[in-house]
Each structure stands twice: as C-alpha cells, then as structure tokens.
Design brief:
4-stranded mixed sheet, single chain, 5 helices, 4 strands
C-alpha cells in the first residue's frame, strides 16, 4: 500500500506546510513518519524510526516524531531527550487524545495538522525560535512499507 492510499497528495502538502509553520515558532524539529503496518509496540517502532531518521542530530535534542501505522491503527509520539528533560511525563497525552478523535472520525490529515500545530505551540514555550535557527531536519513526510 502506498502513502497516497492513506493521504491524498493535497493532504500531504498541507501536513508539510503545517510542519514548516509550526517550526517558525520554535527551534524544535517535527517529523511525520507513516507506514502501513506496525508489528508489536508502536512506541518501540517509533523509537527505531526516530534513530533511523537521525532525529537525535538536532543541536538542542528537541525533535518530535509522529509515527502512524494506518493499517494497524497504531501511532506514537516520540520526543528527544532535550524535550524529555523539560516536560512532564504526560506532556503529549492531550495530543494523543486529540489525534485519536480525528482518526476515529476518518479525518487523519486534519488530526495530523492539528497536533503539529499544537506541537509548535508547546515547543515554543521551552524552545523559542532563535536568531540563528536553521531547519535541521526535513519537513517531508517519511514513508516505509
């Protein structure tokens, strides 16, 4: 199954634009990774993808990965150690709950865009944009079958 089977090209472009917009508010970096299937624990697989995408290579270790396995109906949110040092353990719970609601209604793209916007707002509190900020990670959606 292809990415276009889950998100239309227009929805994909809107998600990439949402990432760029959210990152204008923060030095944090956001990635979205989509795959059809997830065998086992989605958080474990998300951590593996986080490492494969080398998301730990940000200056402040402030990357966030939204991992979705659409056929398996699983997802996970992973924040790097810089974020984990400054936020409570339940920091992403509201994003998780919001995304679940959208996914149940069949509105995946709107839900992804919404949590990306929220990521940007939350990150800016701990990692405001800096004068010398650069886009350290690709904003494109990564996909693996």
């Amino acid at each position: 199954m292809k990415l276009d089977d889950f998100l239309t090209p227009d929805e994909q472009q809107r998600i990439v634009a949402a990432i760029a917009e959210a990152e204008r508010k923060t030095s944090g970096e956001i990635r979205v990774h989509i795959t059809p299937r997830c065998e086992g624990d989605p958080l474990e697989q998300a951590r593996e993808v986080f490492a494969q995408l080398e998301m730990y290579k940000t200056r402040q270790r402030n990357g966030i990965l939204l991992f979705l396995a659409f056929e398996s109906r699983k997802f996970a949110i992973v924040g790097d150690e810089g974020i984990d040092r400054v936020v409570p353990d339940d920091y992403w719970d509201s994003e998780r709950d919001t995304l679940v609601g959208f996914l149940k209604r069949g509105e995946a793209a709107r839900g992804i865009e919404g949590v990306i916007n929220s990521f940007g707002e939350k990150l800016k509190a701990h990692f405001p944009i800096e004068a010398d900020d650069t886009d350290e990670l690709s904003n494109e959606i990564s996909y693996a079958e």
